[in-house]
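Structure ticket #2291
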Amino acid sequence: MNTEPSQPPVPEPKVPAAGPRTKAEQPDSPAGKPAGNSTNRTAGKPAGESANRTADRPAAPPADPIAQAREISLRLLTTRPRTRSELHEALLRKKIPAEAAEAVLGRLNEVGLVDDASFAEQWVRSRHTYQGMARRALAAELRRKGVADPVAAEAVAAVDSESEESRARELVRKRLRALTTADELTKIRRLVAMLARKGYPEGMSYRVVREELRTAGTDTTLLDTPNPD
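Resolution: structure written out below.
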């Protein structure tokens, strides 16, 4: 009895164990999505649609320069009184046309919100009373703020010579209290320099300093001639 020879069993192919993918095997797009499948979306709309809609909107009307000038001026006036010149310069710095600035400032002047004469009067009273500024310095300050010379002169005239000298004496007495250890010459120089910075005339300054030093017990002879060195 013939029997066919038995064939040896065929071994099963070995499947390699799963390992980390190489760089070449990594997917090209995020979250495993194939590259090229992403679309430019803005809130679920195709790219370009938002830009087209923006372009189709009508342009906003240009800002009204009169309204802008009025708003800027009123905002500045809420912080402190200002001269017409100060406001005009501020508006020009904000690129407000000169015609619009003049129109608004003219209206503010009509209703009394801008009044250089009133400003000058308040300025002189405050600066002379609290800072001890003399008439010459007050006039210079008003000129820098754009107040016309006749208006400034009228305001400064409210400070007469007697008031000016009285204020100078107050300043010297107050300053002397901080110069108790200084020598005579140092006292004289500092006191005269202080009065000069505040606009007091030279002759008045020397006289007031000499008299106040003598009243304080310093019988100085250095001020018997002007401008001691």
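Closing remark: Residues 161-176 form the longest helix (16 residues).
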